Amino acid sequence: MPIFEIDGKLWLLETKHQAYAIGFTEKGFLVNTYWGERLDNIRNYPLPRDHFASDSFDSEFETLPEEFPVLNGMKFVEPCLITRFFDGTRDLELDFEKFELDPQANFLRIYLSDSVYHFRVVLNFRVYEHEDIIEKWIEIENMDGVNDAIVKRIFSGNFCLGGEHDYRIIHTWGKWFNEMNISDDSLIHGKVVLESRRLTTSHHHNPSVIFYPNKICESHGEAYAISLGWSGNWKLVAEKNSLEKTRVTVGINDWDFELVLKPQQTFQTPPIYFSWTDQGIRAISHTFHNFIQSHLLPHPNKPRKVLYNSWEATFFNVNLVEQKKLAEMAAGVGVELFVVDDGWFHGRNSDQAGLGDWWHDAKKFPNGLQPLSDFVHQLGMDFGLWIEPEMVNPDSNLYRLHPDWVLHFDKRKQTLARNQCILNMAIPGVQEYLFEKIASLIEDNDIQFIKWDMNRNVSEPGWDREDGGSSCEIWVRYVEGVYSLWQRLAMAFPRVLWQTCSGGGGRIDTGIFRYADQAWLSDNTDPLKRIFIQEGYSLFYPALTMESWVTESGYENTPLDFRFLVSMSGVLGIGSNLLHWSDTEMKIAKKWIHVYKEHREIIQFGRQYRLISPRESEVSAIAYQNDDCSKGVLFVYNRKMESESQTVIIYPLMLERNKVYQFDGLENRQSGADWMQNGVPLVLSGFSALFVPYNML
Ligand code: DGJ
What we know:
The chain is of the alpha+beta class. The protein folds into three domains: 3-296, alpha-galactosidase from lactobacil brevis (Beta-galactosidase, Chain A, domain 5); 307-516 and 542-605, TIM Barrel; 612-696, Immunoglobulin-like, CATH 2.60.40. It is built from eleven helices and 38 strands. A hairpin with a 3-residue loop joins strand 2 (10-14) and strand 3.
């Protein structure tokens, strides 16, 4: 059983490899006594212990590994919860109330409450035993019958990393057009803060991070991975204090945040998913790839189709005639899903106008979108459409009708970005309008795929609430509004697949993947850059979700084969204007799409191995292999421009040692042990890429 309870005082949460233990000390503090390798005997797990102050300037809280520290006492560590009660009291005193354990659902709830101010905190844990993931989140409840409680901060949780180690943190950072750079930094004495204040997850930092003590590499080393399932403002604080204790708190950002809990009201935080391994970074990636696929994605088992997207081909200049021509060309090379990007809706000829008016532009599509959709379907492809529901241009019918629907402060000027304002997704009328418009589009045009974009960051986050609540709740209620609209649409149209996009990778996290099936990682489609972006993405997010288009972008001499092989390592798409491609280019496209379809099962659903990182060498390699190790594919990229050929040796991983394998293009048939020991010799010319399928004989 993955959750044990011992005398109502200690709870042990075990997955296949990890364990997490929490319990009450004699003094009644709930502490996390252990997070690490699953032990053979439950008696070996550390029991809760009280700590003591080292001097009068510190208290026990400096070292006490509290599971959910709240603001109280002589405490200087980051609290996860800060409240203010009606009489000005800001300390919370929580006592154990009860616990509930549901062994069938692997679900534990521990209730704590403040009996003076009638405030309850419920700690929730769910164990995904086989996936090696534990999920935790918090619920709070104002049980007072009369008074409001003000919540200034409510994080989803806290982690106390064991030992007296110098921990390091691996995370991805970037900006628009340059997302998912991997960094690996030491924690300083003091605090490292990663966050978004931009209303969405952001291009700048990603809320899925790895902490590790000592050393780590792809295949070895201890790692603690934490991922926040939230697509709005978030904050992660990693503190190494002067007593060498490292703590990590994570949750909704408390910057400009305030929540008013009315009598009897509750609030639930977003979840944190976490996992421990001693098998290095790859094990963390595999754990999260598997978990995201099997527990978050709406369509976990549906092979993703080869798609065509019109954006880089025609930008805003989409019309029935040209899109039909493109669709014909796309179908001719084997594309399975044709997606019309920005530019198809009322008044949209540039980024100056139209957002909000979600019906076809009558000049571009005189009889609506249906003739195009029918044409695409007749060609045997699915039909997809781009939308940016959360946005409105001042030059639109919607804005003229509802200027009050946008985020704004009445007496302040409004900052436009890309000529657009942000609709307040917390307003039910906004959600209703968008549901009705998007639902009609899907129904009327038989749509199978929606790309949901979001192209600016926030300004003037005002909200005139009719119920008198705090306008600072906007940071939470906006995201809840997006989730709830998406959920409603997903329920109404269960067969539609969705893509998350925010000017590329501005909204990628384990929260959005409960709604989106795949993601657009970056507007940067230069394959030389994309190799790095895709590597950063792969730390947590699976290839099944990684949409990647072949375009003309970047260095113009990048061979088309190279471009295809970069995009084929995820969900293959084409973004080029096919009307400009030569016969030779069309043949190349046809060939690779055919090859991709033959092998996509392994790429999309297999295990990914980062064999040589592009950060380490100009020749990089990745492999995908199925679970029983009988089949795999290698992608090798040589970014060196010199033209002479060279032999590179690629060492595959996880072959069955005693079975014989053959790699396409090589005559020898050797045992897995032999290939893994001596490597696969491949001849690679300058600035080229190879795709090498292999299989067990
Ligand atoms: C930003 C997206 O990332 C692009 O792919 C494209 O959809 C544009 N928006 C359209 O405005």
